[in-house]
């Protein structure tokens, strides 16, 4: 069954006939025990309401399938990550790829002790091992510098929790460029849910002088921010310019045209990570993967030059 090309045709026909008569279904678990290989990969992805994770999951699954691997996928919020870890630890897999690791996550040490190839994407652990990311600090710097160059001085930042390397480094980049001009009242670290993002928007709009631009810590946050501002009759970009970070596929949609910072080569981070993981699995590579992709500006329609009166 595994190598029919090595068997004479009459024998192949006899086996196929027996399979049909017996209604035989191969037992994957038994086969994996014999071969000591499951051809399965575990993927722990961020929540699907974020288009970044739908883009990367699609790329990961398609590439893994093309290489003969099935992917067990879990979509998790940071609040439920401990439960997700426990669930997939019970499964037997050849490799693990995840985007929900926290910067100071104690689970990372458990991963290393499993003796199973693994890689993180979009986020990384403080140990600086086995990751694929964009240059998040540079992304924050570039987002802030772009808005300053467009004449904006009242700039707000709406991101995610700083326990995540992605948001922490993006915020550091923004802070480095804006310095003291980034007011405390114009900073909000959400949990990336719509409800939390609304609280951040309301905080900004409640100030005596409203921001002329908002840097969002991800494109997903930017999409929700645009939607909420439009509901309130605030025009984008005439009243407030919006800047994202990630350059997900939806950002270039003609009805959205989000100005954002993304991977210079526009390569999917999930695809880059799964290529590295399968290379580790098949060639038993034990090297430390450290990939940080350069970034650039994708200037579209959600930002404009601010003309001072």
Number of structural units classed as domains: 2
Q: Name the shape in a single word.
A: elongated
List low-confidence stretches. 29-35
CATH class of the largest domain: Alpha Beta
What's the CATH H-level homologous superfamily of the largest domain?
Response regulator
Helix content: 25-40%
Sheet of most strands:
6 strands, parallel
Helix tally equals 10
- Per CATH, the architecture of the largest domain is 3-Layer(aba) Sandwich
Task: List the strand order in the largest sheet.
Answer: 2-1-3-4-5-11
Q: What is the structural class?
A: alpha/beta
Secondary structure: number of strands: 12
Strand proportion, as a percent range, falls in 15-25%
Rg to the nearest angstrom?
23 Å
Average predicted local confidence, pLDDT:
90
Here the CATH topology of the largest domain equals: Rossmann fold
SSE succession:
HHEHEHEHEEHEHEHEHEEHEE
Q: What separation lies between the terminal Cα atoms?
A: 77 Å
Short description:
With 309 residues, the protein is of the alpha/beta class.
Structure description:
It holds the Pfam family Peripla_BP_3. Residues 1-35 form the HTH lacI-type domain. By secondary structure, the protein is an alpha/beta fold. It folds into two domains: 4-134 and 266-293, Rossmann fold, CATH 3.40.50.2300; 136-263, 3-Layer(aba) Sandwich (Rossmann fold), CATH 3.40.50.2300. The protein contains ten helices and twelve strands. Strands 2-1-3-4-5-11 form a six-stranded parallel sheet, sandwiched between helices. Strands 7-6-8-9-10-12 form a six-stranded mixed sheet, sandwiched between helices. Helix 6 runs parallel beside helix 7 and helix 8 crosses helix 9 (219-231). The longest helix is centred in the first third of the chain and has 16 residues, at 51-66. The protein is elongated and about 90 Å long. The termini are far apart.
């Amino acid at each position: 069954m595994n190598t029919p090309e090595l068997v004479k045709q009459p024998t192949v026909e006899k086996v196929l006939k027996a399979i049909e008569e017996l209604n035989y279904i191969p037992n994957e678990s038994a086969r994996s025990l014999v071969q000591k290989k499951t051809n399965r990969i575990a993927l722990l992805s961020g929540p699907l309401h974020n288009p970044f994770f739908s883009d990367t999951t699609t790329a990961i699954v398609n590439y893994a399938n093309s290489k003969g691997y099935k992917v067990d996928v879990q979509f998790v919020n940071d609040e439920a990550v401990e439960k997700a870890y426990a669930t997939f630890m019970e499964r037997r897999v050849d490799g693990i790829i995840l985007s929900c690791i926290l910067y100071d996550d104690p689970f990372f040490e458990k991963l290393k002790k499993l003796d199973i190839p693994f890689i993180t994407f979009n986020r990384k652990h403080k140990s600086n091992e086995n990751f694929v990311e964009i240059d998040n600090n540079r992304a924050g710097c570039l987002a802030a510098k772009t808005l300053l160059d467009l004449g904006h001085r009242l700039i707000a930042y709406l991101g995610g929790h700083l326990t995540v390397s992605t948001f922490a480094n993006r915020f550091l980049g923004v802070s480095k460029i804006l310095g003291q001009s980034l007011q405390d009242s114009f900073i909000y670290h959400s949990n990336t849910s719509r409800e939390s993002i609304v609280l951040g928007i309301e905080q900004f709009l409640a100030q005596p002088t409203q921001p002329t631009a908002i840097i969002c810590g991800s494109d997903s946050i930017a999409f929700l921010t645009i939607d909420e501002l439009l509901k309130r009759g605030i025009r984008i970009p005439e009243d407030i310019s919006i800047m994202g970070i990630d350059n997900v596929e939806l950002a270039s949609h003609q009805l959205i045209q989000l100005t954002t910072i993304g991977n210079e080569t526009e390569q999917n981070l999930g695809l880059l990570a799964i290529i590295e993981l399968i290379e580790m699995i098949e060639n038993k590579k034990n090297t430390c993967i450290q990939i940080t992709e350069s970034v650039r500006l994708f200037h579209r329609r959600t930002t404009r030059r601010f003309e001072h009166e």
